Each structure stands twice: as structure tokens, then as C-alpha cells.
Amino acid sequence: MKKWLPWILVALCAGWVLSTLREKPETGFHTREFAKLPVLLNGRIQPMDSVARNTLLQLRTKQSVFLEAANQGGGLAHGTSLSAIEWLMGVMMKPETANEQKVFRIDNPELLGLLKLPESGKYFSFVELQPGFAELEKENTRIGQDQKEGQNRTPLEKQVVKLYDSLNLYQRLMLTLRPLDSEDFAGELNQAVKDLASLRADDDKGQLIDGKKPEALALTRVLSGCQLMNDYAYPLVAPAGGPEISRDHWTSLGASLTNSLRQGRIDPPAMHYARMVTAYRQGKPAAFNAAVEDYRQWLRQRFVPELTKGKREFFFNSFQPFYKALVIYVLAFLLACASWFKLSDGLRRSALYLVMLAWCIHTFGLVFRMVLEGRPPVTNLYSSAIFIGWGAAILGMVLEKIYRDGIGSAIAATAGFITLIIAHNLALGGDTMEMLRAVLDTNFWLATHVTVVTLGYSATFVAGFLATIYILRGVFSRTLSETTARGLARMVYGIICFATLFSFVGTILGGIWADQSWGRFWGWDPKENGALLIVIWNAVILHARWGGMIRERGLMNMALAGNIVTGWSWFGVNMLGIGLHSYGFTDQAFWWLLVFVFSQLLLIGLGLLPKQYWRSFRRQDSVAGRLRFEGKNLTDHEKLFPKPQAGRGG
Fold it and tell me: For the residues of 171-217, what is the DSSP string, one character each?
């Protein structure tokens, strides 16, 4: 059984991963097919599903909506929650139901008091927030006038601005596919075409058009609703209809309707969406599904790449490779730690095989993202977290294959888990595959620079994680034997050599890219300084080791300090909000960065404790002392009672 345990665990985890690939047949509204429809947002083509997930993450920090009671709105039967696309369909097509759902998260007690909301709650609906709209807008205007820089705002002011932006975003979604006062959108559009034809016929007969005629009033109402949609719609859902117009030209549904109605017609995309809205509001799944399929058929005439892109990104979103890899990394870490205490080779091999499985899934997600957008692996903070974890996992697996002691697997699993958690929190800011800023235009030097320097980051973190294992096992357990300690020291030394090389080469490649992009090789930008600081610190560690100034514990403490240097270079410089590299700015990570720095300082403090406070060293010292004591007694005994010489008898 022990021999087959690693393979059984891998088979179970792989079976769980593969089971999620199977799509269950849909009954009722075909939400998955709607979710695959392409739209233009943030400068790129993406499916409705990505719009739903990214928006809900910004509003609620989750990709589903919990319902306090069973909801039957829009013909959808739910038990306790709605998926992101189901929620988005409700907001766009039946907002009177969606407005009752608690999707806005508020964590600040002062903001709850400002809006007169119960402090016991965390999530609130659009209807619950409506009474406080005026106060919220007033406060947001004051903040905008007083302070232009978000870094100077108080926590309350930041929450006010965030909630105000969230409500604006929500209302823009409400106006994406229909005017707010429309009940039968498809019928109203068909009637508007007839009314326009009737009015033009009267004009051709020389009759004066009365603006108070029912046809004129109805047409004006429809056109004003379409204009409002054009002004506030969030994603651009309508592609260009004619072959003479660029395929990259997408407009809002309101703009498409405004332009086509004035010509006495309705563009096909607008009509298909209007049919979906009407069918959804009337609770007619068959009519809704037919409208979705008709629109897909229309897209196949000219927009096959966009349709394919939407389908592939929907698959990527549904598969969630990074979440699955994260779960398996955690299981591998637990097995690796258990192998240290039980000294079980079966547990060690199980951890290694699970790390390899998680890394394969991690790699699949990384490569799939690159293929989707045609970009290098690192373009923003989110993708850098994904790539750093991926590179660190490789180094951990290499260490495990060399030393076979479970440490490499623990490092790979820890690095993979932590970086994927960081990536998940960075995704709360919105679209992680958004259009690149001009400063990050893809070229050869950018791709090589970010890849190589990020591998340098990964290696430096791996050295710090190895030092963490050394100190924690040495201080709090008796598992850090002399052999294990020497092995860890060799690992850290080798990894730092690797990190020094890659961080140095990556920094040089960054200078070449900067010379091409900005016309100068080096400008003492905060990000450039951070990269140089990593190179210098790793070089200092190597020189201190070569010069005999530090031994094992000194090496570990300096490697932990390397974690602080790398964390600052990775995140800290972005929080300054200055320099050419401030494209990854995020202030939400500030406190987490402080927690990380404090944890590394605490570990360094443990590493500086005298040997007598290390449980593993106490055990080794006691064994060595006992052996010395026994050796001394044996020597005294031999002096008092010398062995008989040969030939002299007993």
C-alpha cells in the first residue's frame, strides 16, 4: 500500500481536476452560451463571462452572489447562490430583481454610519444603498476637490471613493443592453422602425410632422433611451456590421441603435441582443436560447477569431487552473512536512508527485494566458506573482530530486501557494489581462528582461524560504540534524549563486529595453534601484560567505533579509506611485507587505538566538557532551586499570 500511495493520491487529484472539465447539459436559459459572447472592454476582446467575474470581484471580492432565500427571478431557479454570469444577466436584463441582491461589500464602520446602514452587515444591495446616494456623492465630490492623490486619503475616504465608483460601474452595467424603462425591448425597436417609416411617409407627402403625434413621441422616447445607453454603457457589445468598417471598431448597443434607427433599420447585433433581453424578462428560455444562437451564427460570418477568443477565455475562467494548483500545493506541503516527522519515504514521494502535478496545472494556466493575449509571461503585478511562483516551484523540485529529503517539495509547494494567493488578491482590482500600457509595448528585450529578472526574484525567495525552514526546524523541533543543516546551507548557497546571476543579467537586459523604449539605459528609477539592490545584496551574501564572515546561521539570516529586499523591489517601489514603473501601483498590498517584512524580521531574530535556545542544537550538544563524558571515563579507567600485557596472564 505504501508503494502505491503516491500514485493513488496523484490519480485522485488528477481525477478531481479532470472532472471539472465536463460541462453538464443546461436546462432553461443557456447561460454558458451567453457567457461566451465576445465584447470589447479594457482595450481587448473578452467574453461576457470575464466581464461578469471581474466586475463582481471588484464589487464583492467574490465570483458568486449569495442569496438569502431561493430566487426565481428571470426564470432561473437557485438554491443559495448565483454564478457571476447569472448575476450579470440579471443586472443587464432584469435589474429590478438584481437590485435586491447583496453585492456591495463595505468594511469601514465609519462609512456604514455615514450611510446609516446597520454595522452588523458586510454586504448590501443597490436598493439598500439608494437612500445614501446623495450623501455619498457629496462626500466623493469633496474628496475630489480636496485631494487629487489617492495616497493621501484616509481609510474612510478611500472606501467612499471605492463605493462611489462601484455604484457607477453597476449603473453602467444596467444601461448596457436596455433602457431602464423598457419592458419589451425587441417589440419597441420594431415599432420604432415602423413609426419612423410612417413619419417619413408623412414628410414625403408634404404633411407637417406634429411632434405630439403618438408615433413621434414613441420614437423620441426610444431614441433618448438609446442615447442614454450610449453615454453610460460599460462594455462595447456591438461589432461593426459592414465589411467596409474595421473589425476592431466596436460600439455600445446604444450607439449602434441610435445610428441605425436614424437610417430606418436596426443593426443585427442590436436586434439579437434586444430579443435576448425581451425573452429573459418574459421568462422564455427557448426564445432566449434561439436569439443567442442566431447572434452566434451572425458572428461566424465575419468575427470567427473574436468568437473563438470568447470561447477559449470562458474555458480558462471556468477551469480555474491556478485555484486547482493552489489546492494541490497545500496538500503537497502538508505531506512534505509530515514526512519530516514520520521519516516516511512514501509521504515524501507523495509530496513530490503532487507538486509536479500542481506545477503542470500551473504551467498550463501560465501558457494559456500567454497564448490568449500573445504576450510574454510577465506584464503586470498579477502575472509576475504567477510567474515567480512557477519559477520557484521548478527550483524546489530540482532541490528535491537532488537531496530527496522533502525540503525541496515543501519549498515548491509553499512558493506556489503563497504567490497564487497574492495573485488572487491582485485580481480583485479588475481585469488581469487588460491592455498593456504604452511603456510596456511588447518586444524581444521586454520579454527576455521580465522573464530573466523574475526568475532572479524567484530564486531569491526560494533561498529565503529555505532559511525559514532551517530556523523553524532548528528552534522549534529536533528534526534539524547536522546532515540536514549542512544540506540546507548548500542549497541556500547554490540558489543565491543562481539568483545573483539571473538578477544581474535581467537588470542588464532591462537597461537595454529601457534604452530602446525611453532612450536611456539607466535613470535611477525606483524600480531600477530595487533591481540593483537585489543584485548587490546577493553579491554581499556571497562575499561574506567566501570571506568566512558568516557561517550557516549567518547565511540563513542574510537570506531572510534578501526576502525583505526582494519584497520591496517587487511591491514596495510600486506603492511609491512615482517613476516610469509605477504601472503596477496598488496600495491594498501595503499592510500585507508590512506584515511580510515583520515576519522576516521575527525569523531573523529567532535565527540570532544563542545555540542553547535551539531545540535541535540542544539535542546535538547533549549527545556530543555525553560522548565526551563517556570517552573521558574510559580514558581514566584505562589509566587506573591498564589492560594486561600479552604473556603475563589475567
Answer: HHHHTSSS-TT-SSHHHHHHHHHHHHHHHHHHHHTTPPPPTTSHHHH
Regions of the chain with pLDDT less than 70: 1, 68-79, 147-151, 202-212, 241-246, 435-443, 574-589, 619-650
Hey, how many other C-beta atoms are within 10 angstroms of the C-beta on 171? 15
CA dihedral 399, 402, 405, 407 (to 10 degrees): 0
Please name the residues in contact with 605: beta carbons below 8 A apart, sequence gap of 6 or more: none
Q: What's the per-residue H, E or C state across 382-433?
A: HHHHHHHHHHHHHHHHHHHHHHCCCHHHHHHHHHHHHHHHHHHHHHHHCCCC
Helix (H, G, I), strand (E, B) or coil at 617: helix
How remote is the C-alpha of 455 from its chain's centroid? 19
Whole-angstrom distance, CA of residue 334 vs CA of residue 343: 14
C-alpha cell at 469: 525552514
∠ CA 75-428-139, rounded to 5°: 90
**pLDDT tens per residue, range 337-352:** 988 877 788 899 999 9
* Helix H or strand E segment including 124: strand 123-125
Q: Output the pLDDT for position 640.
A: 38
454: left (phi over 0), alpha (psi -120 to 50) or beta: alpha
> Which 8-state DSSP code applies to residue 434?
P
Which residue do the cell numbers 456590421 mark?
A: 241
The sign of the dihedral angle between the CA atoms of 367, 369, 373, 376 is negative
Name residue 40's beta-bridge partners. 45, 236
Predicted pLDDT at 88: 96
Helix (H), strand (E) at residue 482:
helix 482-518
pLDDT in tens, 215-258: 778 888 888 989 999 999 899 999 976 555 667 789 999 999 98
The pTM score is: 0.82
